[in-house]
Design goal:
This protein is mostly helical and 322 residues long. The chain has helices at 8-11, 17-42, 49-67, 74-95, 98-105, 110-119, 122-127, 130-146, 149-152, 157-179, 190-213, 223-268, 279-289, 313-316. The chain starts with 7 loop residues before the first helix and ends in a 6-residue tail after the last helix.
Amino acid sequence: MTPAHTHPALAEASPGTAQLLAAAGAVLAVALYLTAAARLRRRGDAWPLRRDASFAAGGIALAAAATATPPGGAFTAHMAQHLVAAMAAPLLLVLARPLTLVLRTLPPGPARRGLLATAHSRPAAWLAFPPSAALLDVGGLWILYRTPLFAAVHDRPLLRAAVHLHVLAAGLLFTFAVCRLDPLRRRWSLPWRGAALLAAGAAHAVLAKTLYVTPPPGTAFTGADLRTGAQLMYYGGDLAEAALGAALATQWYAATGRARAARDRRRRGPAAAPARRSPRTRTRTRSEADAGTRPSSPRGAAPVPAQLHRGDDAREGGRPGD
């Protein structure tokens, strides 16, 4: 009979090579993000500081989850790391709109066109389809905890690293699909995203309740440790899903306000529309409005395209100053 054992990653007194590499990768991602955001601001473009703070917090949380051992039993500590890596950190990272930042900082060329084409491709649209993203996220957790996979990662560093990578990637994909902040080929409607969030939350809660009673197959945790970890998964998951729901509600409120303003403009009719200006007047007015936000071209040189300095939030999935 195969002996039962606890999760090996939590039995180590110090982080291994894989954990240190994961932490270094998270810190490097934060450094690259902050550098790109600073470059954007030096160019005269607007990029809210709250996005910098959100991405930095998410990266630091990932680094801490990879290297620190939370207090409590082995299963409780593992579940704390799971909540950070699969739910809290992905939300913080996605709210920072990293893909939009990359598209705005990349110069026009093959790299930018290729990235935008990938984001607008049909496979990317279906991969970010909220129900399929929820199935990959929560379905992977059911396979991890309700099959012998959780015990099988013992003495298998590559398998353990692959499992952790899947948990993080699935959490990022699901959060990305529900928030829908960065550019995609197809923007799934609010009912699709809300239903996927509710279904994923229910499946996550049911999984936590099963773990409260029965440990993952092939493991031996104390009863108190198992119950505490399951409760942490249940209530911590509720908090993370409530935060994701709040982000979804904020988008709905903003979209409703824009739709109401558009209806009011249509109701007022042409009489309320601003007087048309000549092309020369419009050019001069736009130049004055852009003063201080777009660098001037040298005398005699061709004008610098606006998207190189300000970005096109409308095309890239965001709104100016949002």
